[in-house]
Amino acid sequence: MHDFALFFPVNLVKSCGDWFSAAQKGGPMDRKQFGKLVAALRKEQFDENGDRYTQAKLAEVILNQDPQTPLNDIVIGKIERGERTILDDHTLLNLANALQLTIGERRIFFLLATGLDHLQIYPAEEAPEDLLGLVLEMLQDIRLPALLLDRYLNVVAVNGLLLQFYQMSHIDLSQQAGKPGGSNLLNFIFSPAFAEARQHMPPPMWHRFAVGNVIYFRRMTLPYRMTPYFGKLFAHLRKNREFRWFWEQVFYEEKLYFVGGESFQMGSALAGRFRFLTAPLVTHTPYGNLEILTHIPRDEATAVAFHQMSQQTPALAHQIGPWPEAAWG
Fold this sequence. Notes:
alpha+beta, Beta-Lactamase, six-stranded antiparallel sheet, 434 Repressor (Amino-terminal Domain), 2 domains
């Protein structure tokens, strides 16, 4: 699904944020919640003057793309307020096109428009801490560098081999500790803490790496764009000029880099270079996906190096972030 990602007792009603709370009160992702999502996605769009899209501007863009559209600013306002209960395929396609959703985002957007949510699509009787315990057990048993990400691409846990791999690649995760968004994948790869690792990537490889991670981030976070946590995270990420550029760049490049199979390298010529791709192991939960990303070696030297690490590193998983709730700070 992607191969660019690098890194990085709960009360069921209160712990999972606005989207989960609404679902657990007995209803699906109802039209009000879906309307909030549409409004959040609209506000991510900017016109040529740098102003956020208004409902009227979104209606204008849709009309230019499709003169037969049933949408205007009045109808868009009703959708965003949750007053429009019937969303046909024409309406949804117009919205997805005008909101410039990526391939992965479009699939999730259409699924959410059915009115079903994670609690209904992926029902589970286990408590969140039990679900997490099972995934952490898998993480520690994987004898390759691997990490666990939540629905915002925050790092929930890493195994010992990943810490060893990062140490050999001169990547220091501790620099991000305690900072706002410090455990977030995108925040990390666009930060000074990743600068040395980036220097050892040829420019075309860094470009593919950054584009791929932004595509991954957009897909994973789509259902949560209207949550307060995402609002804080996105505002923080947008302070970075490179992030803003790559956020827009994916519209032009996603078909090139969303198919998988790219190989990346980290490390210096002196210390040794590692060539790998990452493969996801996905656990669907009512609280969003938990994804273990395992670094798969792409040449014999990397395979040997990873094997030597595994012989010297205990099988442990280190939880470094909360789940299922995400705490800002």
